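Recap for those who missed Tuesday's class. We walked through two folding examples back to back. For each one, the amino acid string is listed first and its predicted structure tokens come directly after. Nothing is annotated here on purpose, so try labeling regions yourself before you check the end of the notes.
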Amino acid sequence: MRFTNRSLWFAVLACMAMGFFAKSPSFIGNQRWIAGIFYVSTYLLSGIGFYWAYKGFREIRNLWSFLGLFINGFIFVSFLAFSVLIYRAFS
């Protein structure tokens, strides 16, 4: 159960990094590195959370364990889609 709880904490941190990325001052002056840090940290946190959730799901197969897999996977895929849309809008 500790793997599942840990993965859900990583999901919370990934959501916070995603929100900070959306609010980052990347277009003001020369502060683009802030957005880059939040961009990379969102992917890393959701990926690590997915890894811990997978370990928890293999250990205990119940709905609570599946929730960690689903949330971390959803964060990763939705942020990937968001990144593709931003890339297409600015290219």
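Example two. Treat it independently of the first, because the proteins are unrelated.
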Amino acid sequence: MFSMLAMREPQRRPTGQELRDLREAAGIKVYELGNAMGVSTSRVSQIEALAAVTPLAYRHYMDALVRLSQVATTRKQGRSKAP
């Protein structure tokens, strides 16, 4: 789902609220995203508060979000295989 978003540049600069909505829909916590991005949770919050996110911040955010969502999906699939 997120991989297509991360691979292309948006037509317009997304808002921080749009990124936050994606993160929350994926069930990813701020601290998890911060760790994946290599930044503090306050930096993630700053990005999510922007009226227009810069292309560089967008790429870093979405790359981390894609990685975390893939890990979460893999974990869920592993749990569903009951012995």
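Answers for example two:
The helical segments are 3-7, 16-25, 30-37, 41-48, 55-80.
Residues 1 and 57 are 19 Å apart (CA to CA).
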